[in-house]
Amino acid sequence: MLSRKSTCLYVCYNIFMEIPITQSEYWHKLQEDLGEEAIFVKENDYQYLAIVKSTPTGKYLYCPYGPIAKDITSFAQAIDSLKELANDHSVIFVRVEPFLEEYAEVLPNNAKKSTDLNPKETWILDLTGNDDVLKSKLPSRLLRYYKSANKKGITIEQSNNPEDIKLLLKLQQDLADKKGISTFSENYLKTELKQPFSTLYLMHYQPEGQKNKEIVAAGLVFDDKTTRYNLQGAQSDTGRKLHATGILTIQLILDAHAKHLKKFDFWGIAPDNAPDDHPWKGFTAFKKTFSGTEVKHAGTYDIILSPFKYHLYQIFRKINRFIRKNK
Predict the structure, then answer these.
(1) How far apart are CA 102 and CA 124, in angstroms?
(2) Whether 103 contacts 63, CB under 8 Å
(3) Residue 34 sits in the same domain as residue 108
(4) Are 209 and 250 within one domain?
(5) Of 51, 135, 61, 133, the residue nearest 91 (C-alpha)
(6) Which structural domain range is residue 74 located in?
(7) Which value, in Å, is the radius of gyration of the alpha carbons in the chain?
(8) What is the pTM of this model?
(9) How many CA atoms lie within 13 A of 40 on its CB side?
(10) pLDDT band (50, 70, 90) for residue 17
(11) Distance between CA atoms of residues 272 and 289, nearest Å
C-alpha cells in the first residue's frame, strides 16, 4: 500500500503526465496564431507555457493553469525558472495558476492572490467504461430529451469551418447583451476553431412544416489526448425551451467517449459557498446533474517583481473594470 506522501506524489506525477491543454504545445501554437508572444519551456520534471502580456504600466508573464510539475519540489524549480525568464523580459510580475492547491504553499513571499482568471473549481466526468457505465452517469431526463430530439426536428452537426463561428458568436452576443457580460472577438474564436484540437457543434431546429432551419445552440470544444474541454457555448430562447444545452451536452459527451477520451471537463463551477446571485450558480446546478467529481485548483496568483508598477497596474485594472461595467 502506498503511504500518504507516496500517494500524493503518484497523483502529482499522473497530473503532470496529463497536461492541461492551456499548458501544452497546442496552446503555444494557438497563442502564436493569435499574434501573442509566448515562451514554451519543457524540462524533465516540469514544463510551462508563459504568455507575454502588455499593459499601460509594463509587461507581465501569464501561465494559464501552470506551471505543470511532477511534484512540489519540481514546481518550486519551475517558479525559479519563470523568475529568471521574467528578468530576461523585464516584466513587472508573473501570473501563475498552480494546478494543485498544495502547490500554492511553495510560492515565494512576493506572491499575491489575484482575481481568478481560469475557473478555480471545475466538474469532471469520468468517461472510462463501456456505454452502459457512461449512460448511468448521465441525467435520465436529458437522455430522454436527447433520444427524442430528431422527432422534434432537432439535428446536430460538427464544423471546422471558421466562418461558422459567427453562429456561435451571435448566440453569445445575445446572451451577453441580456446579462451585461463580454464575449471573445470573432477573430479570437475563428483562430481557436482553426486549431486541430477544436470542433464547433451546431444544433439546428426545423419543426415540421417550417422551411428553414434555426440555430438554437452551439458549442466549441477542445480535445487533447485524454480530455474534452467544454469551453464555449450558448443557446437561444427557443433553444432554452427545447432543452438544447442539455441535449447538446449529451452529444458532446457521447462523442468524446467514442473517441476514447478519458475525461469531460465542464470548465468551471461556482464554489460551494457561492451566493445565490453568483453568475455561475445556474450553470453549476446543471453541470452537477451529471455524476462527476469536483476538482479544485489553487487559483490565480501574481508574483510581484516591481511593486510600484504593479500598484499602478492594479489601478488601471480597476478603472477598466469600472468602465466595462458601466458601458
Answers:
(1) 19
(2) no
(3) yes
(4) yes
(5) 61
(6) 4-118+299-325
(7) 21
(8) 0.89
(9) 13
(10) very low
(11) 15
